[in-house]
Amino acid sequence: MSSDSLALARVIPDVLDQFRPSVSLRIMNSSRLMVNGTELRPSAAVNRPRVEIGGDDLRNFFTLVLVDPDAPNPSNPTLREYLHWMVTDIPATTAASFGQELVFYEGPEPRSGIHRMVFVLFHQLGRGTVYAPEMRHNFSCRTFAGQYHLNVVAAAYFNCQRESGSGGRRFRFSHGDN
After folding, report:
1. CATH architecture of 1-73+140-163
2. Does the structure show a pLDDT above 80 at 96?
3. In a 3-state reduction of DSSP, which class is residue 100?
4. By C-alpha distance, which of 92, 69, 73 is closest to 82?
């Protein structure tokens, strides 16, 4: 998935620094392939998605996280980044279901506004080298990557708003933004 759409949605720089995608990440929600910017209601994201990981060497392991950088409210994200899911030790060329679920999947429940739900795939140094954080709120992908010497190799996002919400995400850019 392109990092251009991640920058347009401000996933870069809100969650991640610029990176070069190097591993494929395929996310299926109910049999529907998700692409960056897919809009889902909470009822459509109740169950964890199927996530397929690429790669070329079965000796490589990956960590997948799902975070909400807009929690509890996009205009005041005091819980940024809220951790919804963490799976470690995923072998290359398999799916997240082959890894170790350290933080159980919690579907999004946005109360107000449109939330970006961001999947980040990290390359691990080896099996059993990553541990779960103590809390879900105020997780930081950057800090987590630094703590465990992880490299971002792929990322994707979908938008989610409460069931009765309407409209799409709109982006405003100042003259200093690219």
Report:
1. Alpha-Beta Complex (3.90)
2. yes
3. strand
4. 69
Report pLDDT for 166. Answer: 58
The answer to whether the beta carbons of residues 29 and 42 sit under 8 Å apart is no
Cα distance between the two ends of the chain: 20
pLDDT of amino acid 2: 58
% pLDDT > 70, the chain: 90
The rounded radius of gyration (Å) of the Cα atoms in the chain is 15
Inter-CA distances, 132 with 95, 96, 152, Å: 19, 16, 17
Provide the strand spans (E) within 96-162.
100-103, 115-123, 151-160
* Average pLDDT of the residues of the chain: 91
Residue of 148, 88, 156, 72 lying closest to 117 (CA atoms): 156
For the chain, the domains span: 1-73+140-163
What is the structure's pLDDT at 176? 41
